[in-house]
Amino acid sequence: MAKAKTSNIKSKKAKVTLFRISLTSKNYIIIGLGIISDYKSVIIFDGNKSVDGFVPTVLSPILLVAGYCVAIPFGILYKR
Length: 80
What we know:
- This protein has helices spanning 25-47, 54-77.
- The protein is an all-alpha fold.
- Helix 1 packs antiparallel against helix 2 (54-77).
- It is rod-shaped and about 95 Å long.
- The termini are far apart.
């Protein structure tokens, strides 16, 4: 009878690294400030019945961009 050869092949386990986001209380505060900035800018924009003026045409879009594009991503990516 012929013996079957068993090979000692070491299986190489792939290194699996998971992408983890660990948010601390500072992260949540920064994200909260971004959400508050967005909320206030919508209230400012909608509160003024006039479309003309500095507040609804300039200040409100600046606050929206600051909230959505600066504060919220910074709060998510901030690491100590």
